[in-house]
Description:
Layout: H1 9-30, E1 39-40, H2 42-46, E2 55-56, H3 62-75
Antiparallel strand pairs: 1-2
Amino acid sequence: MAEGRHENPTLAKLRDAEETCERLRTALAGADIMLPSLRVDLASCTTTALRSPLLELGGCNLATAEKLAKALGEQGS
């Protein structure tokens, strides 16, 4: 990026959202959890109505939901 230029706010939001999504995907993988529909909600990167972009967690099967509930329960202990 050239000096004195400002980054496009939409692209900055998208980059931040993608980085966060990847960190979440990695953390979930560490707990042996995969959410196949995990992705950035692109429309939320373009709006000014939201403070920050949204991630779509998507659907998962019951076994994955159980693993997720167990992993979150262990964090609260």
